[in-house]
Specification:
This protein is mainly alpha-helical. It has two domains: 2-31 and 184-222; 51-176, no CATH class. The chain has helices at 2-47, 55-71, 77-92, 99-115, 123-143, 147-156, 168-172, 178-222. Helix 4 (99-115) runs parallel beside helix 6.
Length: 223
């Protein structure tokens, strides 16, 4: 009976120890979800902007759409409208750039339309493009980087304009704004406190079980 009880104690302590990494995984998963939600909120704000593009940019989009329709005749009207929306979102990222930088960005987009294969010419590619441009615009502003150079580098990877529908978080990348960093820090502090509580609880449980086991062992020895 003494051996069985001690085995039970060891199993219980082991179960308590296993609970710590599970708790950590849960907190980290929540934090990653929060980061993605923040980026999605930023994208929604841009999508809901009332400010219209200039007539020149609207004309540029119409020109690109005409080229896209000629290149991929299988696109439906709905898909064309989706591409239009993503092109508008992409060009909105250039509103604070000077003329030279804007033209460089337009050149990157024009190059994709002219040179990418037909199978890449769909709404998924343009959605990926608009989301990546959102991330790079914010990143360039916060870290004083060249937006055009960052976009060119990203496009060279072949992971953006590939015709495949990406997870929004993946398309947005690993960018974290100040709000996200604060949330991440808060989550890390919360995790540390939770782990500390769990450790203290485990120690108390282990001490309690050890004392009970000792009492039982003494009782059996007397018997």
């Amino acid at each position: 009976m003494n051996k069985s009880y001690r085995l039970f104690v060891f199993m219980l302590v082991g179960l308590l120890l296993v609970s710590v990494p599970i708790l950590a995984d849960d907190v980290i998963a929540i934090d990653e979800t929060e980061l993605e939600e923040i980026l999605e909120e930023e994208l929604e704000e841009i999508e809901n902007e009332d400010e219209q593009l200039s007539p020149e940019l609207e004309e540029l989009i119409e020109e690109w759409l005409a080229e896209i329709e000629v290149k991929n005749e299988n696109l439906s009207e709905e898909e064309i409208e989706q591409i239009r929306t993503h092109l508008e979102l992409a060009l909105r990222q250039c509103k604070d750039l000077n003329e030279e930088s804007s033209q460089e960005i337009f050149g990157h987009i024009r190059g994709l339309i002219e040179n990418e294969p037909i199978e890449h010419m769909n709404q998924h590619s343009f959605q990926n493009l608009s989301r990546v441009m959102l991330r790079l615009r914010i990143l360039a502003k916060q870290e004083d980087r060249d937006f055009s150079e960052e976009l060119a580098r990203e496009l060279e990877t072949g992971n953006v304009f590939n015709g495949e529908k990406q997870n929004p978080g993946l398309a947005l990348g690993h960018y974290k704004n100040n709000k996200a960093e604060k949330k991440e820090l808060k989550a890390a502090e919360k995790l540390e406190k939770e782990l500390q509580k769990q450790e203290e609880k485990q120690l108390k449980e282990a001490e309690k079980l050890a004392k009970e086991a000792e009492k039982i062992a003494k009782g059996q020895n007397k018997a």
